[in-house]
């Protein structure tokens, strides 16, 4: 994500982190000398983010809801890191993002790779030898209940890549690039897995003038 932000933006450009959580990526944007902004649906996360850096403009927002009174500046780049798989209303989300972007602005979306996301009984997963992978029904778009941490559970929506691409086109975004990066530094216990299949997929999109 850092390299993409550096590639598509310049110093002092406005960049919004949608679904920023406690702000770790927003702070990275700030440290790159960009004008960093972050929004999240969780008041607790926004409170935590503000405590980390009071110079960053954070606010509470449900990005899936229409917001016709948005009063922030237009953004050169909007990023969404590991958020879209939790969103039910991706069409309204993309409409909001479209309206928030500068002309020809860039949207960068990272999601767990829908072909290879690692979870037992979900598409691809390793056996106990860490040698073989098993494939589930990729074409079955559905919602899973996923445990995040310490027993906290939330929904996770599996969508085909085709669905993502179609939704982007429908909402007036052009695809600049689609990336399946291979991590350069990983712990030894997951090295074999990430050397064979991509964990994360990146979409780099540009706002289309209509």
TrEMBL record:
One Pfam family in the UniProt entry: Methyltransf_31
Quick check: keyword Methyltransferase in the entry?
Answer: yes
What is the organism field in this record?
bioreactor metagenome
- What InterPro entries is this protein classified in? Methyltranfer_dom (IPR025714), SAM-dependent_MTases_sf (IPR029063)
Residue runs in coiled coils: none
Q: Which SUPFAM superfamilies does the annotation name? A: S-adenosyl-L-methionine-dependent methyltransferases
Keywords tagged on the record: Methyltransferase, Transferase
Report a single Gene Ontology molecular function.
Answer: trans-aconitate 2-methyltransferase activity
- Domain named Methyltransferase: which ranges? 10-113
Q: This chain belongs to which protein, by name?
A: Trans-aconitate 2-methyltransferase
EC code: 2.1.1.144
Q: Which GO terms describe its biological process?
A: methylation
Does the keyword field hold Methyltransferase?
yes
